[in-house]
Specification:
single chain, alpha/beta, Leucine-rich repeat, LRR (right-handed beta-alpha superhelix), 3 domains, 14-stranded mixed beta sheet
Length: 397
């Protein structure tokens, strides 16, 4: 018979043999890549994110690391809880060695430096989110090799240069969020038929946007605070699935297509551009807030705007009388804000003794008439109640 010590040794060998096949061992390439990434970043004061990153244990149990088999498939760097301190440091080029990554994010923090070109090696990547850090430099054109990429969020960084056409051409894209950077130049076409969100606000983009360059699948479009120019009357009618639209603070020109006022949106922001021409909705406008202020729009104010709760038409060239239906709804408290200051309007049917509801605001300053009622106006409206008669082809005192 075998003695007791021999049996113990045999049993230990069996256990070791079984454990080798029941517990996956992380690919050495992935293991070394995680080590490089860890060495290039640190917890900011108050953060304990990296406390679980002990390389004497299984990296698949690290915070933010998800494995499938022997590979890392998701890497979410930093504590995702709102307000948690982030990470500092740089993004190591060895990130490109995690070739099975489908998801890669870094929470808000102080990550500096440029995006490594090796990101293009992550051919399985579907979600790339590095927002609210201090990433600088240009967006690598090689990101256009990520054919499976669905979400690209590089917002609130310090990126400069152009948006590569190869990135715009990715056909699997659903969300592109590049707002609050310093990107410039014209934007590429986005042919993806699955693209639903395009957020480029607060950059230095310029140039016109040609009809057909944006997919009709778009539901959210924000181009605010750039230097875009040219007309949109051929572009916007094709984007009839939009439920959010903000083109404010650009240099867009030409007419505003009437179809825009039928879009299923709650807030239409077209202010501070160079739009011109009359404004003619096709039907009663069901949009809650419409801001067309600070343009060069002219003609009469359409009564179809009477169903809008907050209407900004100030600082344009509107003429004629304010529609009676609009005034009636204001007096009934259904219109909460009506800004008509700095136009060339000549009449409004309001009894001077009428009391405007406290919940409503009306500003009529600096038109071609003496306002029948005095109501608080924004400070930027100035102190002059009426236009000089020399500026008015018609005048009603």
């Amino acid at each position: 018979m075998m003695n007791r010590s021999v049996l113990i040794v045999i049993n230990l060998l069996i256990i070791i043999h079984q454990s080798r096949f029941s517990i996956a061992i992380l690919d050495p390439v992935d293991f070394l890549a995680l080590q490089s990434i860890r060495k290039s970043m640190e917890d900011m004061p108050g953060s304990t994110y990296f406390s679980s990153w002990d390389f004497t244990s299984d990296p698949c149990n690290f915070a933010g690391v998800l494995c499938a088999g022997e590979n890392v498939v998701a890497l979410n760097l930093g504590d995702p809880r709102a307000g948690a301190p982030g990470l500092s440091g740089r993004l190591h080029s060895d990130i490109g060695k995690l070739t099975n990554l489908a998801e890669f994010t870094i929470v808000p923090g102080r990550i500096i430096g440029s995006l490594p070109a090796t990101l293009s090696q992550l051919k399985n990547l579907r979600f790339l989110g590095i927002s609210r850090n201090f990433i600088s430099g240009e967006i690598p054109a090689s990101l256009g090799e990520l054919q499976r990429l669905r979400t690209l969020d590089l917002s609130y960084n310090q990126l400069t240069g152009n948006l590569p056409s190869a990135v715009g051409s990715l056909t699997a894209l659903t969300n592109v969020v590049l707002c609050h950077n310093r990107l410039s130049g014209s934007i590429p076409s986005f042919p993806s038929q699955t693209l639903t969100r395009l957020d480029l606000k607060h950059n230095n983009f310029s140039g016109s946007i040609s009809p057909g360059s944006l997919s009709s699948s778009l539901q959210y479009l924000s181009l605010s605070s750039n230097r875009f120019s040219g007309p949109v009357d051929q572009l916007l009618p094709q984007l009839n699935n939009l439920n959010y639209l903000d083109l404010s603070m650009n240099r867009f020109t030409g007419p505003i297509p009437g179809s825009v006022f039928s879009f299923p949106i709650t807030n239409l922001q077209l202010e501070r551009n160079l739009f011109s021409g009359p404004v003619q909705p096709y039907d009663e406008v069901a949009i809650q807030t419409v801001d067309l202020s600070h343009n060069m729009l002219y003609g009469q104010v359409s009564p179809l705007f009477s169903t809008v709760e907050n209407l900004y038409l100030n600082n344009n060239r509107f003429t004629g009388s304010v529609p009676t239906s609009l005034v009636d709804r204001l007096m009934a408290g259904n219109v909460q804000l009506l800004y008509l200051q700095h136009n060339f309007l000549t009449a409004v049917q309001i009894n001077p003794t009428a009391e405007i509801p406290l919940s409503s605001s009306l500003c009529l300053q600096y038109n071609c008439m003496v306002p029948p009622v005095q109501t608080p106006c924004p400070v930027e409206a100035g102190t002059q109640k009426t236009r000089p008669t020399s500026q008015c082809m018609e005048w009603k005192g």
